[in-house]
């Protein structure tokens, strides 16, 4: 990888500047455990500088005062610059997080879609709307940018997640300070290069890789008007509490424990191709993964007979090889967490059907075999808590009503799937499951449509016109 300015400087207010300290983030390879290099680690002083630049750009600069169509032209250019860096971003994400190339490509394809979608939002959102009401009243409803936005993203899809958040924020006319996680900063700093090349006005965007304490400083900053966060539910609760102290606006996209319900009328060869990978894609490090498979009791063994050979045939290994299906976990602590849940599942009495250990021949790297537990009770911890690893639990049911109850008996509600030949039955089940997105006879995250969760899976929506709404304040101007 060629020398880049982001290896020594921070991107603050649209310019590469010297960091306030010599603190650095070392980036280990999840597949070899060797260092990939390091980048500057932002400190609270850097956050203060970025927020000050964003505040000035919002209060005095041209960005929020441009027409939405003018801002859209800049977003088109960002998308073009992201596309130019596609191969480099894909390789970087695979190296620093351990995602197989196919997964990395899919994430970065989505990033481009998000910029393209955001660049057309002005054609679908009424920033001004004439209103009349009783007694001859009339006026205009104006939708204005909320202000300075703090954007905090996780490591499991940094460029895609950043794009999902900052593209609509910029389309709304907001200014943004983006804090990527310390585990995946390289590809996000390449996004900063794309933002610089697109020529956004001074102060509009900053990108500051940093750890938790710096993130907390950003969330609590009095000049930040809104916080948007993707990450764990535990962290989301803390962020929501901090924002509540000063009534800052907040959007949260948090954890998931999504269920895939299989009806008794559908052949499993129509289910396995999508459901088989829905729980373990990117080694299960996807918030919307289908990690609970809810199956008729009399079909559980039939499902296992189809699913186990598929899991055991999956190539686990070097994420840089095109035929690798599962790479390592992103961090050693993440592997430790997954292995602890596997131990808990055994203690709880679930039946370990396949996996549960480390793959043979992979002495270096944070790998875990794709794992299936069967005969799982939905009250077990492995059915209730987000594992964030390649672990799927199979939960039998005796009636459709019970299947829906199992799917809904969770603190989460982010994604889901229903598999049934009877379309009316499938749609009925889908409407009864309390979740933000649910697929019928397939699974996937539709990033250009509203995405977000019920219950402890989050607050607010991202994507499409629903995704720009949290970045807008609504004002009524009444005419005499």
From TrEMBL:
SUPFAM superfamilies: ALDH-like (SSF53720). The active site is at residue 253. Residues 16-476 form the Aldehyde dehydrogenase domain. InterPro entries: Ald_DH/histidinol_DH, Ald_DH_C, Ald_DH_CS_GLU, Ald_DH_N, Aldehyde_DH_dom. Keywords: Oxidoreductase. Residues 20-43 are annotated as: Disordered. Belongs to the aldehyde dehydrogenase family. This is Aldehyde dehydrogenase. It comes from Nocardioides imazamoxiresistens.
